[in-house]
Amino acid sequence: MIRTLVKRLPRLAAGACAAALLAGAAAAAAAEPENDYPTEARADYIFGCMAANGQSRESLSRCSCSLDALASLLPYDKYVQASTVLSLRQGIGQRTTAFKSTKVFDDQVAELRRAQAEAEIRCYRGGT
Question: What pTM was computed for the model?
Answer without folding.
Answer: 0.65
